């Protein structure tokens, strides 16, 4: 395994491998790797001849009051995990290497970012799309691997790749969870013991939604209300949003049908966590249209568009 | 020479040539080729082993009231010109091939497009940057060729290539002119005989600016006034803008120094023409700061920021 810090070096080494006909896989990360990242790397290892992991805490996708400076970093630990998972090259650039001067050009997704995290983190997905576009052009992989936990990011990147004709296959990999169901996230390291216990409310509320859907519930407002009530019971939890949307365009649904995504963002103490679950809902002959029910969020004025 | 209409076919043929180590040159055009385009193709021919010319009248770079439908098209003529200039492959896609569904992702330049044509054609350079990004990803050339007549486009694409780390060399090629100095443009075909005679006012006013600069004039307002007066004398000509800007950032200059660009857009009858000239101005010990002089445009309320 080799570690590179510059674009030139990275291009050279990847280029040499590409020329010998090797398939290149890229796993873009912000480091502080967990088992979720390792699952991406192992998948890339399985499907490619040369695996590149980029580790770059990208400043342009953090808002002014977000946790860019505090974001956990541990390169030595990451290096070991990368090695164990089968990485060939770690691209570990400085901010100056990626942004040698103020950017003038940006990539953005117009329609997929007005809901969910995009509505709460203005500029976030522009930062993500732009840096991923840069990484795609630096590494020029055959395939790139992204986790399903960051489902809006995955959707934006999938669409970017398609819209801008990148000759790259985007591979989505299932969320890896702790034993109690909490989705793996570098930000879980911020949680105190009590917060860690509370954090399970995200998957709990998604499981409650799943149960309702299994029982035939199709009204988004009803599902949202139940999820919201579960979160409201957790004293350390503050809901940011619950979104019940069509999976492709990420636009709100009133009635669940087709490919449905339920996603949420919750602050546990000061730590913002996200999670989601997808459902394929066949058109039923029975209709489950209920009256919209008004509920209000806790510690937040705006969350699910449906409630 | 081969003509392709699909992305798949184009990628396949270019890919085969790339694999044998051939250097790929791309000349993106909107067709209705003239000697300017041919000069780009010949330059690409000289510097590459395999030359791709794309011919695509890109709808997303035209405003609602612009000439997308009227834009001249003559594929048979273009094909001959491409062949004569040394093209290996013409990529001639349909609109549906390039935009199979509504785009969600765009590339745009934030800072370079608030002046000059960008100020008068909102969305134009977003359309240009996005389609060029798509063509770059479809053809993956080593070099791409653009004319200096469309200087703001050239600047936007240069910066896009740099900002997004496209591994592509952008080659700019000098404007080719008619004998009387009129810059070659597909839109010159719109001109009546009288309009054609009037159209020479663009280069005339640039030459006047050049003379003034040679004589030591460094005040943008003074140069702008002289250019404006020349255009005002042409009854068929209506000034859109005169811009005296620094060549790199395209931001207005009051005092000419360093790399300076003088660009203008003029309507000759209904036909909008553009032209420009660059100057390298050494810092002089003598200062040429004049009072700003107020003049007003003809047939337009807004033109040079300096006047």
Summary keywords:
homodimer; 307 residues; alpha/beta; Rossmann fold; Pantoate--beta-alanine Ligase, Chain: A,domain 2; 2 domains; 6-stranded parallel sheet; 3-stranded antiparallel sheet; 10 helices; 10 strands; globular; disordered C terminus
Overview of the structural elements:
The first copy, chain A, has helices at residues 7-19, 35-47, 75-85, 95-98, 116-120, 124-139, 151-163, 193-198, 201-214, 220-233, and strands at residues 2-4, 24-29, 50-55, 89-91, 105-109, 143-147, 169-173, 237-246, 258-268, 271-281. Chain A has 307 residues and is of the alpha/beta class. Chain A is globular, with a radius of gyration of 20 Å. Chain A starts with a strand and ends in a 26-residue tail after the last strand.
Secondary structure layout plus pairing:
Two copies of one chain form a homodimer.
Chain A: E1 2-4, H1 7-19, E2 24-29, H2 35-47, E3 50-55, H3 75-85, E4 89-91, H4 95-98, E5 105-109, H5 116-120, H6 124-139, E6 143-147, H7 151-163, E7 169-173, H8 193-198, H9 201-214, H10 220-233, E8 237-246, E9 258-268, E10 271-281
Parallel strand pairs in A: 1-4, 2-3, 2-6, 3-4, 6-7
Antiparallel strand pairs in A: 8-9, 9-10
Helix pairs in contact in A: 6-7, 9-10
């Amino acid at each position: 395994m080799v570690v590179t810090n510059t674009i030139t070096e990275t291009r050279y080494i990847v280029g040499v491998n590409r020329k010998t006909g090797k398939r290149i896989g890229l796993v873009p990360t912000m480091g502080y790797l967990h088992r979720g990242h390792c699952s991406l790397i192992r998948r890339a290892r399985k499907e490619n001849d040369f695996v590149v992991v980029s580790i770059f805490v990208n400043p342009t996708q953090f808002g002014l009051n977000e946790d860019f400076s505090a974001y956990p970093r541990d390169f030595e630990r990451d290096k070991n995990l990368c090695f164990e998972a089968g990485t060939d090259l770690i691209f570990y650039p400085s901010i100056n290497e990626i942004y040698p001067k103020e950017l003038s050009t940006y990539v953005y997704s117009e329609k997929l970012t007005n809901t969910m995290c995009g509505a709460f983190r203005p500029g976030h997905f522009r930062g993500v799309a732009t840096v991923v576009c840069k990484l795609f052009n630096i590494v020029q992989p055959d395939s790139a691997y992204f986790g399903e936990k960051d489902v809006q990011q995955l959707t934006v990147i999938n669409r970017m790749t398609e819209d801008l004709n990148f000759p790259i296959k985007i591979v989505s990999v299932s969320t890896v969870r702790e034993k109690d169901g909490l989705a793996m996230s570098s930000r879980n390291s911020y949680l105190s013991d009590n917060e860690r216990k509370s954090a399970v409310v995200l998957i709990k509320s998604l499981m409650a939604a799943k149960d309702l859907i299994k029982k035939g519930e199709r009204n988004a407002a009803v599902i949202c209300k139940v999820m919201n009530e579960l979160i409201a019971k957790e004293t350390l939890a503050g809901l940011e949003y619950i979104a019940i949307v069509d999976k492709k365009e990420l636009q709100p649904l009133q009635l669940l049908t087709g490919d449905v995504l339920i996603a949420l963002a919750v602050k546990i103490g000061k730590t913002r966590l996200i999670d989601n679950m997808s459902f394929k809902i066949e058109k039923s002959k029975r209709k489950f249209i209920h009256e919209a029910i008004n509920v209000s969020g806790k510690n937040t004025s705006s969350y699910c568009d449906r409630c």
